[in-house]
Design brief:
With 130 residues, this protein is an all-alpha fold. The protein has six helices and no strands. Helix 2 packs antiparallel against helix 4, helix 2 packs antiparallel against helix 6 and helix 4 packs antiparallel against helix 5.
Length: 130
């Protein structure tokens, strides 16, 4: 049906867009292990960032550590109450410390950044049955 037919259908109250959308649950058999790895990585990253007391005086560094702490809370929420929206929110809130070559001063966090990228990658792909 073209745009005119859609307009007439809406005028008559025959809107197919109002049909409920079936919720597709997360495959927690797969996602639980992936989210647990992300949770562990974020915990270690927050701890490593906060242990650098000289850098914690920098508002940008402190803010990034706080962002990871908030993301960690989101991961815990999704593990407790799994929803697709919760997973998307977590994935949208977690970004790596850096991309590309390791910047000066980040050498001690390079391994955790790589683990973070590795933990995020499978979560961005659909799991079987999703």
């Amino acid at each position: 049906m073209g745009w005119f037919g859609d307009l007439l259908a809406r005028f008559r109250g025959e809107n197919a867009d109002d049909a409920p959308i079936a919720d597709r649950p997360l495959n927690m058999d797969v996602r639980a292990a992936q989210l647990a790895e992300l949770r562990t990585t974020l915990e270690e990253l927050v701890e490593a960032m906060q242990s650098q007391t000289a850098r914690m005086d920098n508002p940008g560094w402190r803010g990034r550590a706080r962002d990871y702490s908030y993301a960690l809370g989101g991961v815990r929420d999704v593990l407790r109450t799994p929803t697709r929206d919760g997973l998307y929110e977590v994935l949208g809130s977690v970004r790596p410390l850096y991309r590309g070559p390791v910047p000066a001063g980040y050498e001690d966090l390079a391994g955790l950044n790589e683990r973070l990228l590795a933990a995020l990658a499978p979560l961005r792909e659909p799991a079987p049955g999703e």
